[in-house]
Amino acid sequence: MRNDLPPRRAGAVRTRLLSVIGVVGVGAVAGSLLLWHAQVGDFLGLAADKEPVVSTVSAPAVGAPPATTPAVSTPTPTRRPTYPPKTPSTTPTTPTKQKTTETTSVVREESINGLSPKLKARLKKAMAAARADGITISITSARRSATKQQRLLNAAIKKYGSYKLATRWVLPPKYSAHVQGKAVDIGPAAAMTWLNKNGWRYGVCRRYDNEPWHFEALTAPGTKCPPREPHAVAKAD
What is the spatial distance between Cα 166 and Cα 157, in angstroms, rounded to a whole number? Predict the structure, then answer.
């Protein structure tokens, strides 16, 4: 009996060899085609670059945020306004009040501040001496305004019925010693009596018989007072 196994095995080997050769051939052909295709693509510029080309036109700087990123502003701390230090007022209040009071006293009839310097100085000495004797001299009317004097004259004319009789008591403003600050009316009756008796020592004298309250600086201090006049007389214009 003959053994045919070896010939079959040889045929199988041949077949496998041919298959391998065919596969290798096909691979070689395919490789050749791919290589040819790449070369043709390079030649025609159809193949894509391995790395993309990035345009640098209008490109942001390296490290800078994109244009669409909103800028973040750093908040500035709010500073409180500074004010200059308050300068304390150097205007004294007390002297101002004293000045106001003195100015008001000048226009008051009951004050000696509106009198002439001579009569004011003499009357102050007489008032101090009377006070030492227990007598208080009160000022009832010192310096008057021309308006007030004219009003008193008009009332006197109405009371006595004529200008001539009225001027025995009230002179017109342009002749009045009160308007000039050179006459003073005093009270009460005890003060009138004391000053009528002692006024000459200080140069202050009673002028009219009909006005025991009316005094003027008519003589030098220590000199006898001149004789009194019966009443005032208006000068002829």
Answer: 5
CA dist., res. 137 & res. 108, Å (int): 17
Phi first, then psi, for residue 230 (nearest 5°) are -60, -40
Give residue 1's identity as a one-letter amino acid code: M
Contact status, residue 213 vs residue 187, Cβ threshold 8 Å = yes
Rounded distance between C-alpha atoms, residue 161 and residue 48, angstroms: 139
C-alpha 169/C-alpha 157 separation (Å) is 10
> For residues 186 and 178, what is the distance between their CA atoms, to the nearest angstrom?
13
Closest CA to 149 of 123, 129, 173, 119: 173
User: Phi/psi zone of residue 61: left (φ > 0), alpha (ψ -120 to 50 degrees), beta?
Assistant: beta
Tell me the helix, strand and coil percentages in the chain, rounded to 5: 45, 5, 50
DSSP 88-156: PP---HHHHHHHHHHHHHHT-TT-STTS-HHHHHHHHHHHHHHHHTT---EEEE-S--HHHHHHHHHHH
| Burial class for 22, CB neighbours closer than 10 Å (0-12, 13-18, 19+) | exposed
| Cβ-Cβ contacts under 8 Å for 160 (sequence gap 6 or more) | 166, 168, 169
* Binned average pLDDT, 10 residues per bin, the chain of 237 residues: 50 62 62 55 45 42 44 54 55 46 56 95 98 97 96 97 96 96 97 98 98 97 97 82
Strand ranges (E), the chain: 138-141, 183-187, 205-206, 214-216
